[in-house]
Amino acid sequence: MQVTPEIIIGSFIGLLSAACYGLSVVVYRSQSSEIRPIAASSIKMWVSLPFIVVMMILIPRINSIFIPSTQIAILGISVILGAVMGDTIYIWSQERIGVSYAFPIAMTYPIMTYFLAIAFLNEPPVLSRLAGAIIAVIGVILLSNEQNQSEESGEFNPSNNSIRKLDLWGIAAALTTATAYAVQTTLLQVGIEGVDVIGGSFIRIAIGSIAFTPVVAIARIRGMKWPTKRATKLVMIAGFFGMGVSSLFYVGSVSMTGAAISSVVGSTAPLFAIPVSVFILKEKVTRKASLGVILTLIGIVLVVLGV
Asked: Shortest CA distance to 33 belongs to which of 175, 280, 182, 228?
């Protein structure tokens, strides 16, 4: 695939999406003791719905209204696979085997997406692009594990060892998460083809908002406490950017660059948490984190250029 202005712009939009999501994750983590992950995921989806509705009103386009039912179904399945099922399964996996194991497995999805794009979307096999995806994934894993290390060391105690013990169910759940994310991105490329980005984003967020309703209801029946008002407000603000704006950018990135490139660029959210850690949390950048940044950037360049 030749590097075109559209690919460059789409990759930049994908980085903006990752930045919005990465910065929102910092807020989610700061409120982790006051809000359950399912509640946070549902709130950010629900708060994004009014935003995308306003976008539909402010930027009306006739093709945002008349979207084929087949593509509506594909877009709906993609968001259910990723934002609803994938995220929920990942949370369960993380609780069983810990983030240091669950995240690296789940973050292999750009590599899976590369092969899915070749198999089902007729993408040409480009070895440098595959190498870039692998290098970027390693970089993202290094960055994320460095950021999560202090959290896990603080939460861990010997009596809780059974939670952190590796088990087949936890590993299978993490692999399922990676597969769900990869299939989501691949389906998104198919569903958004010829569809207005705002209209496609509206369909995804609307269906995702509906799908989260029974998920939250079941969680509440099983004893999930509703978050505090302060946590809810912060998650709503973060969700506006981390889901509403980020999702719009991500859909635009997929429509312009394709699934293989956008999956790599979109997985770089931990890269944008570094400035927050340095300038706001006053943390030092370790050698491992620096290596992660370098590998991630190299991987992105290789994937985008595809030489």
From this structure: 228
